Amino acid sequence: MARQGKVTVVGAGFYGSTTAQRLAEFDIFDEVVLIDIIEGKPEGLALDMNQSRPIEGFETKVTGQSTGPNGEGYEAIAGSDIVVITAGLPRKPGMSRMDLIETNAKIMRAVAENVATHAPDAVIINVSNPLDEMTALAQIVTGFDHSKIIGQAGMLDTARFTNFVAEKLGVSVGSVSTLTLGSHGDTMVPVPSACTVDGKPLSDLLSADEIEELVTRTRNGGAEVVALLKTGSAYYAPSAAAARMAKAVIEDSGEIMPVCAWVDGEYGIDGVYLGVQAEIGREGIRKIVETDLTDTELAGLKEAAEAVRAKQADVQSL
Ligand SMILES: NC(=O)c1ccc[n+]([C@@H]2O[C@H](COP(=O)([O-])OP(=O)(O)OC[C@H]3O[C@@H](n4cnc5c(N)ncnc54)[C@H](O)[C@@H]3O)[C@@H](O)[C@H]2O)c1
Questions:
Q1: Sequence-ordered list of residues with C-beta below 8 angstroms from that of 184, at least 6 positions apart, any chain
Q2: How much distance in Å is there from the Cα of 13 to the middle of ligand 1?
Q3: In the annotation, is 118 catalytic?
Q4: I need a surface site. Which of 61, 123, 136, 153 has the fewest CB within 10 A?
Q5: How crowded is the C-beta side of 108, counted as CA atoms within 13 Å?
Q6: What sign does the CA torsion over 253, 258, 261, 267 have?
Q7: CA distance linking residue 242 with residue 157, whole number of Å
């Protein structure tokens, strides 16, 4: 099998390490680089992942590298085609994603500056929270084209929605198709009108109240996991989402995915990073794909855009 390219994962915590392992197990990259500021952590995890290669049967090499306060160690990411940024604090029970903004903005600034210096041609996939704001900050700091900076949230939120619908109806997840747009937070916009089960509209199978219950559970999907874990946030489903996005980029697949992307005119919304469907390719976002929305869904999307726009303006000063 032809392997190609280099992908870096910044942050070797739960999200980053599971993403690195998934990327390596795809066996489609030449190299996966995992970096973190904690000395020895990425090196140790990389050693462990490489030792799983004979068992899992993949050849992709994993490199671990710790980095210093002045960017020491960042040479390891040179030539990366993709950089997945997971560096940042996760939520604790009772916290909103927005409570992380000041701390994670400082981390994002430091990381994005180093990525711009050492991997200027990379497509960035950000997952650090608050998602829409940190994605905007990554673009501001790197100065990369908007199309080269993507945030991960919609893939995860949609997967949560799909899982809840499948469980409710007792059907396979493969038979369910759902969609969420908007921001990764309180103004998430689940789109029931675009949801189907075996091609049938969801509204034929569940009452409006039942759908609303699943929508609410989806909106609070991250908090539900945080409340149970108590010491951190979700990472199995989130890492699956980020890894799939990186795969779509390196394979130039043209897949249409729900992601956080720069919206400039679509849906009548201008100049903001927001959850929408987009075609993903080697250059990042090829184009935003607009979908038919009900008046209520469109109003929800516009409301999410304005809420995110206000916060994205604030991050410039953080
Ligand atoms: N977008 C999503 O859907 C989604 C889902 C879950 C979690 N998250 C977010 O992902 C982020 C990471 O979550 P986690 O569970 O892996 O947390 P974690 O605490 O397990 O790991 C974070 C890691 O980042 C590292 N780090 C901190 N500053 C760094 C820097 N400057 N450079 C490199 N590494 C640095 C830490 O040392 C730590 O190892 C959090 O912000 C969390 O909110 C996003």
A1: 97, 129, 130, 131, 132, 151, 153, 154, 157, 260, 275
A2: 6
A3: no
A4: 61
A5: 30
A6: positive
A7: 12
To which residue do tokens 């950089």 refer? Answer: 83
- Residues in contact with ligand 1 by the CB-under-6-Å rule are 10-16, 36-38, 86-91, 100, 104, 107, 110-111, 127-129, 131, 152-153, 156, 184, 232-235, 238
Q: How far apart are the CA of 172 and the centre of ligand 1, in A?
A: 31
CA of 97 to the centre of ligand 1 (A): 12
Best of 9, 10, 14, 15 to mutate for ligand 1, by most ligand atoms within 8 A of CB? 15
Q: Which pLDDT tens digit goes with each residue over 43-76?
A: 999 999 999 999 999 999 999 999 999 999 999 9
- What interhelical angle do 101-118 and 131-142 show, nearest 10? 40
In this structure, what DSSP letter does residue 33 have?
E
Question: Which residue minimizes the CA distance to atom 26 of ligand 1?
Answer: 87
Read off the amino acid at residue 298.
L
| β-strand partners of 61 | 31
Q: How far does the centroid of ligand 1 lie from the alpha carbon of residue 115, in Å?
A: 16
From the centroid of its chain, how far is CA 114? 20
pLDDT in tens, 7-31: 999 999 999 999 999 999 999 999 9
Q: Tell me which of 91, 148, 184, 247 is the catalytic residue.
A: 184
Give nearest CA residue, ligand 1 atom 22: 13
> What is the total residue count of the chain?
318
